[in-house]
Inverse folding.
């Protein structure tokens, strides 16, 4: 099984890290057998599994339900579990929610969205032995505040803010960072200036790894596929072959191409 240490070693050695979202035991088994480095049990399950408009209604119990199923499907893959909307609005609540997720689901790390306003919370979790993946750039839980699912960090000021937030997150103990929908140049600069692995989604090829929503990359999400995603089922005869093609494309830096980047 990967660990926070082995994932940092991959970054240092230049090996790209493959990550996919996963929400159940059957897919977990296929993904593990296909060589995916990290599972993300994302609160995107609210949209792709539950059919909701946003991720906001997802509860801690629902995250635990799905993450436990994933863990039963694959015992040995490093698993990050999202803390859902409003389950970490104070450091104390975050400790309670993250503690429950870690105890009940077998998670190896929790992920939470937000920048400098979350530093105390990340420090609290990290200092109690809970590994944290920060999430900067487009924050789906703040979709209403952000006015939609938009690329972030396009101006000098907003790019600097994301850069400073990434550095600060590492300083208070974050062990990983997801960067969502930011210009490739911004993501490259951040990846080069932190030791923690930076996993991009719509953040260009120079991140230390890539993540996609499983249903998008298998072409089974309803609606228009996001620009940064790719249907890996095209030309493949099985789900397993599609996942292996994704892992290989990430490792060889064929994915994401310029057409998937901002
Ligand atoms: O919930 C999720 O699937 C995520 C990814 C989009 C990174 O957070």
């Amino acid at each position: 099984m990967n660990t926070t240490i082995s994932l940092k070693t991959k970054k240092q050695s230049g090996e790209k890290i493959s990550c996919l979202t996963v929400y159940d035991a059957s897919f977990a088994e296929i993904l593990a057998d296909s060589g995916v480095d990290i599972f993300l049990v994302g609160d995107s399950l609210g949209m792709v599994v539950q059919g909701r408009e946003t991720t906001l209604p997802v509860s801690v119990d629902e995250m635990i339900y799905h993450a436990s199923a994933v863990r039963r499907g694959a015992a040995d893959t490093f698993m990050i579990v999202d803390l859902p909307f409003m389950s970490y609005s104070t450091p104390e609540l975050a400790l309670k929610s993250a503690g429950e997720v870690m105890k009940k689901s077998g998670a190896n790390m929790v992920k939470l969205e937000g920048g400098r306003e979350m530093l105390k919370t990340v420090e609290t979790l990290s200092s109690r032995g809970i590994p944290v993946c920060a999430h900067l750039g487009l924050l789906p839980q703040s979709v209403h505040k952000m006015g939609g699912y938009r690329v972030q960090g396009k101006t000098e000021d907003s790019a600097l803010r994301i850069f400073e937030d990434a550095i600060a997150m590492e300083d208070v103990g974050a062990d990983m960072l997801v960067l969502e929908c930011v210009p490739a140049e911004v993501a490259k600069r951040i990846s080069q200036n932190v030791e923690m692995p930076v996993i991009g989604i719509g953040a260009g090829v120079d991140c230390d790894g890539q993540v996609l929503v499983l249903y998008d990359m298998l072409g089974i999400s309803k609606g228009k596929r996001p620009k940064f995603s790719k249907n890996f089922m095209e030309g493949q005869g099985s789900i397993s072959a599609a996942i292996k093609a994704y892992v290989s494309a990430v490792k060889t830096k064929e994915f994401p191409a310029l057409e998937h980047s901002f």
Summary: The pocket of 3-methyl-2-oxobutanoic acid is lined by residues 21, 40, 42-44, 82, 178, 180, 201, 211, 213 (CB under 6 Å). The two ends are 33 Å apart (CA to CA). The chain is about 40% helix and 15% strand. Residues 30 and 186 are 33 Å apart (CA to CA).
